Amino acid sequence: MAGITSFSYRKFMHEFNPNALTFTEMISDFGLIYDNEKTLNLLKSDGSDKPLAIQLFGGSKETIIKAINVINNLNIDFDFLDLNLACPMPKIIKNKAGSFWLKDQEKLYDLMKDVVLTSKKPVTAKVRIGYDEININETVKTLEKAGVSFISIHARTRDQLYYGKPNFEVLKDIKKIISIPFGISGDIYTVSDALNALNLTKADAILVARGGVGNPKLFKNIDLALNNLPYDETLNLSEQKEYLLRFSGLLIEELGEKRAISILRGIAPKFFLSFPNSKKYRSLLAQKMSSKEDLINILNDFN
Ligand SMILES: Cc1cc2nc3c(=O)[nH]c(=O)nc-3n(C[C@H](O)[C@H](O)[C@H](O)COP(=O)(O)O)c2cc1C
Predict the structure, then answer these.
(1) Ligand 1 binding pocket includes 154 (Cβ within 6 Å)
(2) Ligand 1 centroid, distance to 301 Cα (angstroms)
(3) 208-262: per-residue pLDDT in tens?
(4) CATH topology of 7-226 equal to that of 237-301?
(5) pTM score over 0.90
(6) What residue ranges do the domains of the chain occupy?
(7) Which residue's CA is the closest to the ligand 1 atom numbered 21?
(8) Dihedral (CA of 27, 61, 84, 152) sign
(9) Which CATH superfamily is 7-226 part of?
(10) CATH class of 237-301
(11) What's the rounded Cα separation, in Å, for the pair 298 and 303?
(12) Ligand 1 center to residue 154 CA distance, Å?
């Protein structure tokens, strides 16, 4: 998730389910080609977030291939190269990137076969069920034919952006259409959300996005449930404070206090969404927190 899945976030979340695959946020092809420092910082990792997929986005085959050559020559330990064919945001679509690729299957095939040939690592792809119309069956076949190894499917169309219910029904037959593994994404907030979506689609993997922000135990609980082990979804206030402090410590170390606190203003309140009487503290975290000391004081006052 852009703006969220920093190295610190991946490292922190990974401790809750060390078998899980993590993804960088979408990385710009131009940022890599022009050696942009901010872009290169998004690729930071010390291996503690592995297995790791680097996610790339771009609007032309030429620039995407150039960017993959840059990645091939960087000294980073990662496992998969993931192509973003899913982003719905206007500034991305304007450049024919993200989910724009889903509109033309011939172009998509032409891109992905060369991506697979160029990348040193196995290639995976993130897609939506369609752009304006649902065409996921065609898309998965195109990607398999191009040599893609794994597909993550966000069960919404581009037109739905991030709203409305994900449509897992249309993914019921994907297993019959392709033989490569696929994962599913969309509104996974609880263990039962994950199990229901997996049951319906017979997917090989489940992707946790917004539901994991502020609820790292969700990763562990899904894994426990899939292994038929007992799990407890209730969140405990002191545990949540401890998790937030751990994540904040990592983020401050990675980005410095100022930048980290500005990101934490968006993320920290989510750790306490389900607690009664948390409203005052959530708004302090979102609006008044300007240092690590503020964070600690707000958490100390919240009981
Ligand atoms: C703020 C935000 C940023 C996102 N950035 C990315 C991204 O960089 N790459 C990507 O593949 N998906 C991105 N997504 C989409 C999520 O990975 C996920 O597919 C989508 O949110 C649906 O899952 P959810 O309903 O469980 O959140 C982003 C979503 C959000 C909310």
Answers:
(1) yes
(2) 33
(3) 999 999 999 999 999 999 999 999 999 999 999 999 999 999 999 999 999 999 9
(4) no
(5) yes
(6) 7-226, 237-301
(7) 209
(8) negative
(9) Aldolase class I (3.20.20.70)
(10) mainly alpha
(11) 10
(12) 8
